[in-house]
Predict the 3D structure of the following.
Amino acid sequence: MEKVERLATILITFKKENEQIPILNGILSEHSQYILSRLGLALPHKDYNIITLIVEASIDTINSLAGRLGKLDSLNINVLVEKAKVK
């Protein structure tokens, strides 16, 4: 069975001082072949950081990545998966 590729946006928000960051970066490095774009935005006046990922992968891979990120304490994860298949 052919795996269907989809586009997804993953939004990660967290406080600036967060000891989970090395683990987060390790997970993202493991999935780097699926990440098309990574944008980081620091909001120093709010003591907050945001990372936006654009991912192209199978729904299983997207769910696996989101699940691993969601298990990290003090990170907020939001995932939006495009309904259309990537050609």
Residues 13 and 59 are 22 Å apart (CA to CA). The chain has a mean pLDDT of 91.
